[in-house]
């Protein structure tokens, strides 16, 4: 066991108890080895504090891009359920929160709907939409409530030279907190000095205080020969890249070694995902698969022959067909809960195609052919379009209300999907209070 751990726990206790502002802690949890050790060390440190003095709330935030590796998602979901159950039973000031991108920001709505090319280093449009923005919104909400917040990350200097330099550059001299890009937010990295071999030794020897063991986590890493994708809170956070667990659609790297490793170790049901991911990579550089005009307002503006625009309608439809076919094959072997694209995304894609004057083929036609159903999506698309128009008209004098109403509707829908509406009224009231507070401070941007 690392001799550093007693000092780290003591420092965590000191940071927690002796903060006059009682700023809430936000722990970025990805389910990987680093964030798991971070949460475990913090949890065990707080257990040593008398219950009556554990008066600062700790939010465990896990961001789901909706295109994470399905095997990893299943593992993380089980872990999050254990965390919340154990926190309640043990009386810990810890709550679990999942963040997801907005419907218009999801990977498939942008790639299949709008025709955005698969991400590349020079145009990594996915990071901000799928990772930074959802987590940022949550952090900003907590800052609005408390004035300031401290973000705890499992970043370690041992992970890479680039990360070490970044951490050193942003750290305050003589302090463990460093300023975050967000106003009134600070970053604390308790395990930054832990080396990789110390980390694995700790996880294999010390059971998680929320129950169970780390055997499944260790097996996942062994089978995938991989690393985890860190919670991304700004553009300075390292991308997943190389062989790290992350989005199964990632084309920033030439090969997804983690998925290859899982398939090679028996998870051959993931082969359709690999095929689609490789097709995305291939078509990105195929001139015939791209429009000769950039995506601006619909209809497109004609440009010169050298312009590489969005994917053609034909390629977008082929991607959707491959995606739905992969989903169907996986559901037949892994269960219907294994969802690669949501119904809401399908409706949003069809609406986007209509806006781009793409009327054939239709999303419902592709879906019905693959699933042998007779679903009519037109009414859902028209309803969504009418709702958007009515909302815009109703908020014509106060356009900033559009986003507020959409977020409150999302809260309601999420509670309904989770089959438990407990706390819905409190969530809605809190969101409204935050909006009013921002408005009074003059931080709302008017459209």
TrEMBL record:
Gene3D superfamilies: HUPs (3.40.50.620). Residues 284-307 are annotated as: Disordered. Transmembrane segments: none annotated. It holds the Pfam family PAPS_reduct. Residues 27-208 form the Phosphoadenosine phosphosulphate reductase domain. Residues 284-301 have a biased composition (Basic and acidic residues). It comes from the Bacteria. PANTHER family: PHOSPHOADENOSINE PHOSPHOSULFATE REDUCTASE, SULFATE ADENYLYLTRANSFERASE SUBUNIT 2. This is DNA phosphorothioation system sulfurtransferase DndC.
């Amino acid at each position: 066991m690392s001799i550093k751990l007693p000092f780290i726990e003591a420092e965590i206790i000191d940071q927690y108890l002796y903060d006059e502002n009682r700023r809430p802690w936000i722990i970025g949890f990805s389910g990987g080895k680093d964030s798991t050790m971070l949460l475990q060390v913090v949890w065990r440190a707080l257990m040593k504090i008398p219950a009556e003095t554990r008066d600062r709330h700790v939010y465990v935030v896990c961001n789901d891009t909706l295109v994470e590796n399905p095997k990893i998602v299943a593992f993380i979901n089980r872990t999050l359920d254990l965390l919340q159950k154990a926190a309640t039973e043990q009386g810990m000031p810890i709550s679990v929160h999942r963040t997801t991108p907005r419907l218009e920001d999801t990977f498939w709505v942008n790639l299949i709907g709008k025709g955005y090319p698969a991400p590349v280093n020079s145009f990594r449009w996915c990071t901000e939409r799928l990772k930074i923005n959802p987590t940022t919104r949550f952090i900003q909400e907590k800052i609005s409530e408390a004035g300031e917040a401290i973000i705890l990350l499992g970043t370690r200097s041992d992970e890479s030279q680039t990360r070490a330099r970044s951490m050193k550059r942003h750290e305050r001299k003589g302090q463990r907190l460093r300023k975050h890009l967000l106003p009134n937010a600070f970053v604390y990295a308790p395990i930054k000095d832990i080396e990789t071999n110390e980390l694995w030794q700790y996880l294999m020897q010390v059971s998680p205080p929320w129950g169970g063991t780390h055997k499944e986590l260790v097996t996942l890493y062994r089978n995938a020969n991989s690393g985890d994708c860190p919670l991304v809170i700004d553009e300075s956070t390292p991308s997943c890249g190389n062989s790290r667990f992350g989005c199964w659609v990632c084309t920033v790297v030439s090969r997804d070694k983690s998925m290859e490793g899982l398939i090679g170790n028996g998870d051959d049901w993931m082969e359709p995902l690999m095929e689609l991911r490789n097709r995305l990579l291939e078509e990105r550089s195929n001139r015939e698969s791209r429009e000769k005009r950039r995506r601006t307002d619909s209809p497109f503006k004609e440009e010169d022959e050298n312009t590489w625009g969005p994917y053609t309608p034909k390629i977008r439809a082929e991607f959707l067909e491959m995606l739905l076919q992969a989903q169907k094959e996986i559901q037949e072997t892994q269960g219907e809960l294994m969802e690669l694209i949501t119904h809401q995304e399908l409706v949003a894609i069809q609406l986007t195609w209509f806006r781009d004057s793409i009327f054939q083929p239709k999303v419902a036609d592709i879906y019905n052919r693959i699933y042998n159903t007779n679903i009519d999506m037109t009414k859902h698309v028209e309803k969504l379009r009418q709702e958007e128009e009515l909302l815009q008209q109703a908020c014509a004098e106060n356009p900033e209300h559009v986003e507020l109403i959409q977020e409150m509707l999302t809260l309601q829908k999420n509670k309904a999907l989770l089959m438990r509406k407990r706390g819905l009224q409190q969530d809605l009231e809190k969101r409204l209070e935050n909006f009013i507070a921002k408005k009074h401070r003059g931080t709302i941007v008017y459209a």
